[in-house]
Amino acid sequence: MLRVGLTGGIGSGKSTVARRLAELGAVVIDADALAREVVAPGTDGLNQVRARFGDAVIGGDGRLDRRALAAVVFEDERAKADLEAITHPLISSRCADLLDEAGPDRVVVYDVPLLVENHLGPDYHLVVVVDAPLSARVRRLKEQRGMTESDVKTRMAHQATDAQRRIAADVVIGNDGTVHDLHAAVDELWQQRLQPFDDNLRGRRLCRSYDLPVVSTYDDDWPAQAERLIARFSHALGARAPEIEHVGSTAVPGMPGKDVIDIQIGVSELRDADDQEFVATLTNLGFPRVEDIRMDHPTGELLDPSLWVKRFHGSCDPGRMVHVHVRVVDSPGWQSALLFRDWLRADPDAADEYVEVKAELARTTANSGEYAEAKEPWFEKVWPRITAWAQKSSWRA
């Protein structure tokens, strides 16, 4: 089941996107609606809120007075924590009921206004942010809700900034045109990414990268993409992955490279990577294991193949190619990946040389297997330079 987090600032058009996704077949879970539902009149949630905060937060009609409650918890962290301790388990339980009703074969979209503010991105396979110019958002809220510009900007001041949302977003849907334009963008996202991702996830199928060029222009968003992936892995694996690093070409600022995010997950022992729960966790995140890739190419003086074993996982997401290398922390494979990355970061001339070598090999080899094999002599050639740099700079993994 693909889990998508949907968010956007007030007036961005997030609700329109949510409705369109529901029309396309997604199960949309509205966090705000659930938050209201669990404290509706007659519910155990409202009784708990009354017991904790008193009758002052209950209106004359027996409903929760949200403004009164907000005034209590706005600047009182203890009161806010107490409220969340009441509502969050109830919301989670109701959400679980909705998921059971939906069944396992549906894309689930969580409409969460404060997704970024509450750091919920790692809970989802993808985060979709609806973005719109400030002027358009102000105009919509004045026309559709009768809000004043001052009210709108006050509300915006208590939300994440547009820049913060974009950093958290795997997908940004721009909403600066017509509703027809917005629907077209949502339809494209559904057909080209969400549905194929969900199909691959349920079938445990990888999305292959055969047609990606070896050298692409550096993308300033690569580090942010890697950070989002690392956050998801860390959230899901916890102490089973004591160290996680962004490695490979996309981890070298400014250097062109293949548009693949390489993530190195460190484990204490290789058997941790073979644990069924570990493998299942990565698979459920959208990263099935590739059984026929089980070791790195030995480099340098440590040529014993048993020192270079690893496990490898690929990605189900057609919109973001990811290679996940699971290695024992401080093993030769772990250290060489970090050392090579840091050498390229520290020596722009070396980075330029590496790009030229890759471009030439891409022109002269017939497939990815030949290309990978043809790179190895260059690695052997430069390894003494790399180790000399490590010694001179007192490099440590």
Structure description:
With 397 residues, the chain is an alpha/beta fold. It is built from 15 helices and nine strands. The strands form two sheets. The chain has a five-stranded parallel β-sheet with strand order 2-3-1-4-5, sandwiched between helices. β8 and β9 form a beta hairpin. The radius of gyration is 25 Å and the shape is elongated. The chain starts with a strand and ends with a helix. The model has no long low-confidence stretch (mean pLDDT 92).
End-to-end gap: 37 Å
The topology string of helices and strands comes to EHEHHHHEEHHHEHHEEHHEEHHH
The tally of helices reads 15
Alpha-beta classification: alpha/beta
Strand content bin: 5-15%
> What is the strand tally?
9
The share of residues in helices is: 40-55%
Strand order of the largest sheet: 2-3-1-4-5
Instruction: Characterize the overall form.
Output: elongated
Main β-sheet description: 5 strands, parallel
Query: Whole-number average pLDDT?
Result: 92
In the predicted model, the low-confidence regions spanning at least 5 consecutive residues are none
Report Rg: 25 Å
